[in-house]
Design brief:
By secondary structure, the protein is of the alpha/beta class. Helix content is 42%, strand content 15%. It has a domain at 63-181 and 190-234: Aldolase class I (TIM Barrel, Alpha-Beta Barrel). The chain binds 2-phosphoglycolic acid.
Length: 255
């Protein structure tokens, strides 16, 4: 556990305008300054504001993440942003396979895996999202769904996957106000770590951070972070306000 530095990622989705992006950094950085050495903080704006956020976070230890990346370096892919472009901007991280990409935009495992390949080839740190839908949970298929989503990781060596982060985000908990209970989260996180241990290596599994996401708020961050295999949080709605996200970080570290 010691080697897994607690990681907190704000996924702003399709929210905020340029002025809001700028206005977030100073109060959030101030609110979390005293815990900055014992945690990693990452902000993920939409792609149009990545540059602005790279500039705004200069001189802080806050990292910047994209919310997706293209499968190719460049070419005829209207609407896509390549991993090479993200790297060129100074962006080091990318969220992949978020449930909104999988379910609203119909990204299947093959496409998510191709995006993963592109991201790791450019040396970006991938935040690889997995999670089951409510009907899948009710049908006792949670582990089957998660395992299918994880399969693409097997194509890469641990040297290439390097700082891979896995995020468990049950679809029924995203934006619903109903978070997974700490016990439910722990059960799936332990399954993911075991899968990584079996299919990649136990040392890699021990150092890979597994985040929980889905209706995280200041009121539940410490209970979730108290779980052995919950190494951080991926936060949507409650990350839009700098002080609320700051509380999530601080309470999460006090678990
Ligand atoms: P939420 O979203 O915190 O608003 O539930 C989490 C996510 O989608 O990453």
């Amino acid at each position: 556990m010691e080697s897994r530095i607690p990681l907190f990622i704000a996924n702003w989705k399709m929210n905020k305008l340029a002025k809001d992006v700028q206005a977030f950094v100073i109060p959030f950085n101030e609110a979390t300054q005293d815990v900055s050495a014992k945690s990693e903080r990452v902000l993920a704006p939409t792609s149009v504001y990545l540059s602005a956020l790279v500039v705004a976070t200069k001189g802080t230890s806050i990292h910047v993440s994209a919310q997706n990346c293209g499968t190719a370096k460049s070419g005829a892919f209207t609407g896509e942003v390549s991993a090479a472009m993200l790297k060129d901007l100074g962006v080091g991280w990318v969220i992949l396979g978020h449930s909104e990409r999988r379910h609203i935009f119909k990204e299947d495992n093959n496409l998510v895996n191709a995006r993963l390949k592109a991201a790791i080839e450019e040396g970006l740190t991938p935040v690889f999202c997995v999670g089951e839908k409510l009907e899948e949970r009710k049908a006792n298929q949670t582990f089957i769904v998660i395992e299918n989503q994880l399969l693409g990781l097997k194509a890469h060596s641990e040297a290439v996957l390097k700082d891979l982060v896995v995020a468990y985000e049950p679809v029924w908990a995203i934006g619903t106000g109903e978070n997974a209970t700490p016990t439910q989260a722990q059960e799936v996180h332990a399954f993911i770590r075991q899968w990584i241990s079996k299919n990649i290596s136990s040392t890699f599994a021990n150092r890979t951070r597994i985040l929980y996401g889905g209706s995280v708020k200041p009121e539940n961050s410490s209970q979730l972070m108290a779980m052995e295999d919950v190494d951080g949080l991926l936060v949507g709605g409650a990350s839009l306000d700098p002080l609320s996200f700051g509380e999530i970080v601080k309470k999460g570290l006090n678990s």
